[in-house]
TrEMBL record, chain A:
<feature type="domain" description="Transketolase-like pyrimidine-binding">
    <location>
        <begin position="9"/>
        <end position="184"/>
    </location>
</feature>
<dbReference type="GO" id="GO:0000287">
    <property type="term" value="F:magnesium ion binding"/>
</dbReference>
<dbReference type="InterPro" id="IPR005475">
    <property type="entry name" value="Transketolase-like_Pyr-bd"/>
</dbReference>
<dbReference type="InterPro" id="IPR029061">
    <property type="entry name" value="THDP-binding"/>
</dbReference>
<dbReference type="InterPro" id="IPR009014">
    <property type="entry name" value="Transketo_C/PFOR_II"/>
</dbReference>
<dbReference type="GO" id="GO:0016491">
    <property type="term" value="F:oxidoreductase activity"/>
</dbReference>
<dbReference type="InterPro" id="IPR033248">
    <property type="entry name" value="Transketolase_C"/>
</dbReference>
<protein>
    <submittedName>
        <fullName>2-oxoisovalerate dehydrogenase subunit beta</fullName>
    </submittedName>
</protein>
<keyword id="KW-0560">Oxidoreductase</keyword>
UniProtKB/TrEMBL annotation, chain B:
<feature type="domain" description="Dehydrogenase E1 component">
    <location>
        <begin position="66"/>
        <end position="342"/>
    </location>
</feature>
<dbReference type="GO" id="GO:0000287">
    <property type="term" value="F:magnesium ion binding"/>
</dbReference>
<protein>
    <submittedName>
        <fullName>Pyruvate dehydrogenase E1 component subunit alpha</fullName>
    </submittedName>
</protein>
<dbReference type="GO" id="GO:0016624">
    <property type="term" value="F:oxidoreductase activity, acting on the aldehyde or oxo group of donors, disulfide as acceptor"/>
</dbReference>
<dbReference type="InterPro" id="IPR050771">
    <property type="entry name" value="Alpha-ketoacid_DH_E1_comp"/>
</dbReference>
<keyword id="KW-0560">Oxidoreductase</keyword>
<keyword id="KW-0670">Pyruvate</keyword>
<dbReference type="GO" id="GO:0009083">
    <property type="term" value="P:branched-chain amino acid catabolic process"/>
</dbReference>
<dbReference type="InterPro" id="IPR017596">
    <property type="entry name" value="PdhA/BkdA"/>
</dbReference>
Length: 334, 384
C-alpha cells in the first residue's frame, strides 16, 4: 500500500470511521437511532454508513429512546452488537429506565450468563450555542450506574480508538461525545491501522511540575490552553485526560498528583454531585501526604444548563481555572 | 429486500389525492372474547392437546399453591401468584416451539416452568438468592422482568434480530393490564409494527394492577383495541379457556412466523389471589367478585370438557394430580434447603473484568468475612 498523506480529520469523522471499520469487520455490528440513515445523524457521524451497509444494519428507528435502547437489548440477546445513537444528551433521558434497570445490570442479573455488548453514543456538553435541552453534561448519571463503562475522548485519535474499544467490549459502554469537539481537527491518518485504546486508561496530555489539572472530554483543550497561559504566571501545569470515567484510572491520576502535589479537577458538569467530588475524594485518599493544598474543583454551576447567550459564564474557562490554581496555597510551600 | 422495503413507504401527498390509508376494520378485535371450551369448536381441537393442557393446568395450580405456602414458611421472599390465570401461563408455554423465546413478567414464573425451566431455578428471583437463576439461552426464557413493560422492547428487538438473521423464531412477550399504560408498552408495539417483527404480545387482563382496577388505566374499548393504532391486529380471548388461548396465540404465532408481523392478544382473566402474599386485597375488592370468578375456573372449564366428552377418565385425572403432587414435594424439599451463597459473587458479574475499584471493595468484604470467621472460631475475642 502506498503511504497516505496524513490529513487533518475531524472528531466526527473519526467516530464515523470507527463505526464503519467496526461494521466492516464484524457483521453483527448494527447502528440504530434517530436520523442515522440518509441524513447521517444530526452531527453527520453516521454519514455514508447506510449506503455502505444498508438499512437493516443502519436503521432509522421510530422516535422513542426507550424503544431504541430496549430493542437493542433484545438484539444483543440474540447475538448482535448494537451501537445506539442518542441524538442529544438530554434526549437520552427517556431511555434511562432501560439503561439503568436492564443494560447496566443484565450481566449481573443473569449471574454472568448473558453479557450485553451494547454501545450507547451520547453527544454531550455545551459550548455550541444550543438552546434548552441541547447542552447537558449528563455524565454524573452514567457514572453513578454500576455496570456501565463510561468513556469520553478529547482527541480525534481517541475518538476512533475509544469507540472501537467500546464496540468490541462485551460490556455496555456509554461513549460521551463532546459536541463542541466534533469539528476539532487533528493530523490523523484514518487509513493507518489504528491502535484500539484499552478502556480505562488515562493519559498525561501535558507534562508539568507545579500542579495537575484532572479533566476529560470538552474541558481537555481548555485545560491545555490554561496550562499554556499559566506559564506566564510561573506555573508549569500537568494535564491528565481521563478518557475513561468508568473504569477510573486511579494509578495514572495518583501518580501525577504525587509528582505535582496539587490538583484541580475541571469539568462542565455541575460541581455538587458531579464527578469532581468523587475524583477529589479519591485523590485525597490516595495522595494525602503528597498534597500541598486541598484538591479544588472548577465545574459548571449547579444550575440547569443556561441559555446560549449566557453559557460562557457557566462553562469552566481559562481564567476560572487559573484562579483555582492560584488558590492552591503556594505561599505555604516556601 | 430490507425490512422497510417490504412494508412500502408513506409519501406525503397533498389533497385531493392524500396518501391512501389502509382499512383498520380487519385489525379490530371481536366484540366478545374468543371461546372454545363448551362450544362446538372444542370438537376440532386435538384431544391430546386438551389432555396436555389439563395436566399442565393441574400442575400449575399446584405450583402456585406450593409457592404461596413457601412464602408463609419464609422460604420465598415474595410470590405473585398466577392462581386463576394458569390457562394463560400454560398455553403461552405450550404454544411455543423450542427455538422460540418467551419474555415473562414477574407474575409468569409458571409459564417459565411450564416451558421446561427447573422450578427452583425459576424461583431464584423470588427466593432472593440471586436475580435470574437460569441462563436465558438454555430454554430461551428471558429473565423474569419486574419493571413494568420493559421486557416488551426486548422481545421486539430479539424477534427483529432473528428475522434479520433469517431464523424462523418468534418471541412471545407477557404483560399485565396495568403495564399497558407504560410508555414501553407503546414503544414496543410501535417498533414491532414498524419493523413487522415476529412477536406476539400477550396481555393478561386480570382486572387489577395491585389495587387499581382497569377502568383507571384506560378509556379504550378494550386493551386489544390498542393494537389498531399501531397497525397490528388485536385479538380478544377468554383467558380462562386454555384451548382458546392456545388457539389464538397459535394463530398469532403462525402469522408472525410467516412474516405477517406482530399481534396483540388480550386474554380476559382474573387474579384469584391478592397481588402477592404481601398484599391485602380486602382493601379494594369484594369477596363476592372473587367468588363469581370461581365458577369460571380454568381447570374446571377444561375438566368439564374432557369428562363431558369422555376424553379423560378418573385414572387420567388422578395421574395429573399425582404428577402435580410429586412436583410440589420435590419443590418443597429442595426449597427447604438453604441456598449456597458466595458473597464474592457480588463482584464477579458486574463487568467482564472487575475494575480496580471493585477489586478493592471485594478485598474489603473478604477481610470482613475472614474476621467474622475468626470471631466465630474465637468467641472470646482473645486474639484481638
Ligand atoms: C415501572 C414500574 N412501576 C411500578 C411497579 C410496581 N408494580 C409492580 S406490579 C404492579 C401492578 C402491575 O399490574 P399489571 O400490569 O396489571 O400486572 P399484574 O400484577 O396484575 O399481573 C406495580 C404497580 C413496577 N414493578 N414497575
Ligand atoms: Mg393486572
Amino acid at each position: 500500500m502506498t503511504t497516505v498523506a496524513v490529513k487533518p480529520a475531524t472528531m466526527a469523522q473519526a467516530f464515523g470511521r470507527a463505526l464503519r471499520d467496526a461494521m466492516a469487520e464484524d457483521p453483527t455490528v448494527h447502528v440504530m437511532g434517530e436520523d442515522v440513515g440518509a441524513l447521517g445523524g444530526v452531527f453527520r457521524v453516521t454519514d455514508g454508513l447506510v449506503k455502505e451497509f444498508g438499512e437493516d444494519r443502519v436503521t432509522d428507528t421510530p422516535l422513542a429512546e426507550a424503544g431504541i435502547l430496549g430493542t437493542a437489548v433484545g438484539m444483543a440477546m440474540y447475538g448482535l452488537r448494537p451501537v445506539v445513537e442518542m441524538q442529544f444528551d438530554a434526549f437520552a433521558y427517556p431511555a434511562f429506565e432501560q439503561l439503568i434497570s436492564h443494560v447496566a445490570r443484565w450481566r449481573n442479573r443473569t449471574r454472568g450468563a448473558m453479557p450485553l455488548p451494547i454501545t450507547v453514543r451520547v453527544p454531550y456538553g455545551g459550548g455550541i450555542g444550543g438552546v434548552e435541552h441541547h447542552s447537558d453534561s449528563s455524565e454524573a448519571y452514567y457514572i453513578a450506574t454500576p455496570g456501565l463503562h463510561v468513556v469520553t475522548p478529547a482527541t480525534v485519535a481517541d475518538a476512533y480508538g475509544l469507540l472501537r474499544a467500546a464496540i468490541a467490549s462485551d460490556d455496555p459502554v456509554v461513549v460521551l461525545e463532546p459536541k463542541r469537539l466534533y469539528w476539532s481537527k487533528d493530523a490523523w491518518n484514518p487509513d493507518e491501522p489504528q491502535a484500539v485504546e484499552p478502556i480505562g486508561r488515562a493519559v498525561v496530555r501535558r507534562r508539568g511540575r507545579s500542579a495537575t489539572l484532572i479533566t476529560y472530554g470538552p474541558s481537555v483543550p481548555v485545560c491545555l490552553e490554561a496550562a499554556e497561559a499559566a506559564r506566564a504566571e510561573g506555573w508549569d501545569l500537568e494535564v491528565v485526560d481521563l478518557r475513561s470515567l468508568v473504569p477510573f484510572d486511579d494509578e495514572t491520576v495518583s501518580a501525577s498528583v504525587r509528582r505535582t502535589g496539587r490538583a484541580v479537577v475541571v469539568h462542565e458538569s455541575g460541581s455538587f454531585g458531579g464527578p469532581g467530588g468523587e475524583i477529589a475524594a479519591r485523590v485525597t485518599e490516595r495522595c494525602f501526604h503528597h498534597l500541598e493544598a486541598p484538591v479544588l474543583r472548577v465545574a459548571g454551576f449547579d444550575i440547569p444548563y443556561p441559555p446560549p447567550m449566557l453559557e460562557r459564564h457557566h462553562l469552566p474557562g481559562v481564567d476560572r481555572i487559573l484562579d483555582a490554581v492560584a488558590r492552591l496555597q503556594w505561599e505555604a510551600r516556601s | 429486500m430490507t425490512v422497510m422495503e417490504q412494508r412500502g413507504a408513506y409519501r406525503p401527498t397533498p389533497p385531493p389525492a392524500w396518501q391512501p390509508r389502509t382499512d383498520p376494520a380487519p385489525l379490530l378485535p371481536d366484540a366478545l372474547p374468543h371461546r372454545v371450551l363448551g362450544t362446538e369448536a372444542a370438537a376440532q381441537v386435538d384431544p391430546d392437546l386438551l389432555r396436555r393442557l389439563y395436566a399442565q393446568l393441574v400442575r400449575g395450580r399446584r405450583y402456585n399453591t406450593q409457592a404461596t405456602a413457601l412464602t408463609k414458611q419464609g422460604r420465598l421472599a415474595v410470590y405473585p401468584s398466577s392462581t386463576g390465570q394458569e390457562a394463560c401461563e400454560v398455553a403461552a408455554a405450550l404454544v411455543l416451539e423450542e427455538r422460540d423465546w418467551l419474555f415473562p413478567s414477574y407474575r409468569d414464573t409458571l409459564a417459565a416452568v411450564a416451558r421446561g425451566l427447573d422450578p427452583v431455578q425459576a424461583l431464584t428471583l423470588l427466593r432472593g438468592d440471586w436475580h435470574t437463576g437460569y441462563d436465558p439461552r438454555e430454554h430461551r426464557v428471558a429473565p423474569l422482568c419486574t419493571p413494568l413493560a420493559t421486557q416488551l422492547p426486548h422481545a421486539v428487538g430479539l424477534a427483529h434480530a432473528a428475522r434479520l438473521k433469517g431464523d424462523d423464531v418468534v418471541a412471545l412477550a407477557m404483560i399485565g393490564d396495568g403495564g399497558t399504560s407504560e410508555g414501553d408498552f407503546h414503544e414496543a408495539l410501535n417498533f414491532a409494527a414498524v419493523w413487522q417483527a415476529p412477536v406476539v404480545f400477550l396481555v393478561q387482563n386480570n382486572g387489577f394492577a395491585i389495587s387499581v382496577p382497569l377502568a383507571k388505566q384506560t378509556a379504550a374499548p378494550s386493551l386489544a383495541h390498542k393494537a389498531v393504532g399501531y397497525g397490528m391486529p388485536g385479538r380478544l380471548v377468554d383467558g380462562n379457556d386454555a384451548a382458546a388461548v392456545h388457539e389464538v396465540l397459535g394463530e398469532a404465532i403462525a402469522h408472525a412466523r410467516a412474516g405477517g408481523g406482530p399481534t396483540l392478544v388480550e386474554a380476559v382473566t382474573y387474579r384469584m389471589e391478592a397481588h402477592t402474599n404481601a398484599d391485602d386485597d380486602k382493601r379494594y375488592r369484594d369477596d363476592a367478585d372473587v367468588e363469581a370468578w370461581r365458577a369460571h375456573d380454568p381447570i374446571a372449564l377444561l375438566e368439564r370438557e374432557l369428562t363431558g366428552r369422555g376424553l379423560i377418565d378418573e385414572a387420567g385425572m388422578a395421574a395429573a394430580r399425582e404428577d402435580a403432587e410429586a412436583m410440589a414435594a420435590d419443590l418443597r424439599e429442595r426449597m427447604n434447603q438453604d441456598p449456597v451463597l458466595d458473597p464474592m459473587d457480588l463482584f464477579a458479574h458486574v463487568y467482564a473484568r472487575p475494575t480496580t475499584q471493585l477489586l478493592e471493595q471485594e478485598a474489603m468484604l473478604r477481610a470482613e468475612l475472614d474476621a467474622e470467621t475468626r470471631g466465630h472460631d474465637d468467641p472470646e475475642g482473645a486474639t484481638r
